[in-house]
Amino acid sequence: MAGGIEIRAAHFPGRAPIDAYGNGGFRFADMSHRGSILCLPSGIHGWEVSGFGELEEADLARLFDEASEFDILLVGTGEQLIPMPVELRKRFREAGVAVETMATGAAVRTYNVLLAEDRTVAAALIAVD
């Protein structure tokens, strides 16, 4: 067996409210994560995105792969609201998902409320300082 540290993709296997955000990350389930996150029915995953304007198709693959598992997607675009491009919004609608974009703080608060109501919600949250 080779020694050393095994680096795995950040993943919390469950749904959990977001306890705090800021300083470049999030706190949830008595843990913290530095960077952006995807909150999906399959769990909370680290998301290698630092700005909404730099999103690429590959950054959204997990969202589309799991789109049948949620009805609402909240997108936290960072410090300020940045509208989602029309074509991308259309693709989510075709997948049966309603999308709401808002600043990350508002997205976190809305996600927590919908999660508490046991709604089928997902969130893509870009970390803020």
Automatic annotation (TrEMBL):
Show the InterPro entries listed in the entry. Answer: MTH938-like_sf, NDUFAF3/AAMDC
Reading the lineage from the top rank, the first entry is Bacteria
Q: Which Pfam families match?
A: DUF498
Among PANTHER family, the record links this protein to:
NADH DEHYDROGENASE [UBIQUINONE] 1 ALPHA SUBCOMPLEX ASSEMBLY FACTOR 3 (PTHR21192:SF2), NUCLEAR PROTEIN E3-3 (PTHR21192)
**What name goes with this protein?**
Mth938-like domain-containing protein
